[in-house]
Write a structure and sequence with these properties.
The chain has about 375 residues and is of the alpha/beta class. It is built from 14 helices and 12 strands.
C-alpha cells in the first residue's frame, strides 16, 4: 500500500518508557519513572475527588462549550472565554496552529533542540524547517534567520522554558523579539513549564493577558500535564486573540476532551496546596542534582522546569540509561535529539535519592 510521501521522511515521537513494561522486561518489582516530567506526587487530591464524583457520568459526551473550565481559566488569567481553546493536551493546540498556517510553500522556525512535536506536525504539512545552530534559545540567531527567510516563515516556536533542556528566556527579551516580527507570522509560546519558571524567577513569567493585549499574532500554550498532575487525562489549552481561536475551532473535532478531564482540570486549579507542595519540592530537590553534577564533572544547564538535563563527554548516555533501567530507574536518553545527554524528572525525595545512589555506583564502575 502506498502512503503520502512525507511519511517516508518523518520520525516517530519517542515517548518515555512505561513502568509496567520495564518491570516485566527486567523482572524488577520496583520501578521509578523519572522520564516524562510527570508530577511525582500524582493527581491533586481535589482532582481525585472530582473524578470519583463524576465517574458515573463517563457515558455522557462532555459539554462541548467547555464553559466551566474556560471560565475558570479566564478568571485566573483575567481574560475572556472567547480567548481560550481547550485541547487534548497542548499538543493538539500545536497541531491546530500548524494546520492553520503551514503548507509546502512556507516554513517554520525553532531553536536547535526543542520539543519534537513542532517539527513532526509541521512536516506533516510539508513545511520547511529552519533551526538555529544553537541548541538553546538564541534570539539574535532567531532574528537573523527570520529576517533572511521572512517571506517563508509563518510560525515561530518558542518553548519557554525549553523542553528537553530546561533553559528559559526572560519575558522582556521575548516581548522585544515579538515586536520585530511581522503580524502575519504566528508566535507560538509554549509555556507548558512556565509555572515552574515563574516560581524560580519572576523575570521568566509570561502573562497571557499582556501578550494578547499587545500582540494579535501570539498563541500562549498551557497544560495540566506537568504541575497539575493530569498527564494521563490529556488536557491543555491555548490563549490568543479571537481571530486565532476562531480559526482553530474550524479544525477542532467536537468533544475533543473528555468530561472527566474537564472536571478534573477545574478541580486541579483550586488545589493550591498541591501546587505549592510540588513547586517547593521540585526546586529544593533539584539542588541535589546540581551538587551531584558538580561532584562528578557532569555538565548541566540552569533548569527552570521540573527536570534537569545532564550532558556527558566521555560517558555514553545510551549505556548509562540502559544500566539505570536494569536498576529499575527510567530516565529520558536524548540520543534521538543528537545529544549525548539524559533528561531526569525531579521526583520525590525517595525517588531522587535512589537515582543519585544508583547513578553514583554506575559512574564509579
Amino acid at each position: 500500500m502506498n502512503f503520502n510521501e512525507f511519511l517516508n521522511h518523518l520520525s516517530n515521537y519517542e515517548p518515555g518508557k512505561d513502568i509496567e513494561v520495564i518491570a516485566k522486561e527486567y523482572g524488577i518489582s520496583e520501578v521509578i519513572k523519572l522520564a516524562s516530567n510527570e508530577n511525582p506526587f500524582g493527581v491533586p487530591p481535589k482532582a481525585i475527588e472530582s473524578l470519583k464524583q463524576n465517574a458515573s457520568k463517563a457515558y455522557l459526551y462532555p459539554d462541548d462549550s467547555m464553559i466551566e473550565l474556560k471560565s475558570k481559566l479566564a478568571q485566573k488569567y483575567k481574560i475572556k472565554n472567547e480567548n481560550i481553546i481547550i485541547g487534548a493536551g497542548s499538543d493538539q493546540i500545536i497541531e491546530f496552529a500548524v494546520h492553520s498556517k503551514l503548507n509546502p510553500q512556507n516554513a517554520f522556525l525553532q531553536t536547535g533542540v526543542t520539543f519534537a512535536m513542532y517539527e513532526i506536525y509541521a512536516k506533516q504539512r510539508g513545511a520547511k524547517c529552519y533551526k538555529t545552530s544553537s541548541i538553546t534559545h538564541d534570539l539574535k540567531e532567531f532574528k537573523t534567520l527570520y529576517d533572511k527567510h521572512k517571506e517563508e516563515i509563518k510560525i515561530i516556536f518558542l518553548c519557554l522554558p525549553n523542553n528537553p533542556l530546561g533553559e528559559c528566556l526572560d519575558a522582556d527579551e521575548v516581548l522585544e523579539f515579538i515586536r520585530d516580527v511581522d503580524k502575519d507570522c504566528l508566535l507560538v509560546l509554549d509555556a507548558a513549564y512556565n509555572e515552574f519558571a515563574s516560581f524560580k524567577d519572576e523575570k521568566k513569567h509570561l502573562e497571557p493577558y499582556d501578550l494578547i493585549k499587545e500582540f494579535e499574532n501570539v498563541l500562549f500554550l498551557g497544560t495540566f500535564s506537568k504541575l497539575y498532575g493530569l498527564g494521563g487525562l490529556r488536557i491543555g489549552y491555548g490563549i490568543a486573540n479571537t481571530q486565532i481561536i476562531n480559526a482553530f475551532y474550524k479544525l477542532r473535532a467536537p468533544f475533543n476532551v473528555s468530561n472527566l478531564a474537564l472536571k478534573a482540570a477545574v478541580a486541579a486549579l483550586d488545589d493550591e496546596e498541591f501546587v505549592k507542595k510540588t513547586l517547593k519540592n521540585n526546586f529544593s530537590q533539584m539542588q541535589l542534582y546540581y551538587e551531584f553534577a558538580k561532584k562528578h564533572g557532569i555538565k548541566t544547564l540552569q533548569s527552570y522546569t521540573n527536570f534537569i538535563t545532564y550532558f556527558f563527554d566521555e560517558k555514553n548516555s545510551i549505556d548509562l540509561s540502559e544500566k539505570l533501567l536494569k536498576k529499575g530507574i527510567i530516565i529520558r536518553n536524548l540520543k534521538s535529539y543528537g545529544l549525548n545527554a539524559m533528561r531526569i524528572t525531579i521526583g520525590t525525595p525517595y525517588e531522587n535519592e535512589k537515582f543519585l545512589t544508583e547513578m553514583e555506583k554506575i559512574l564509579k564502575k
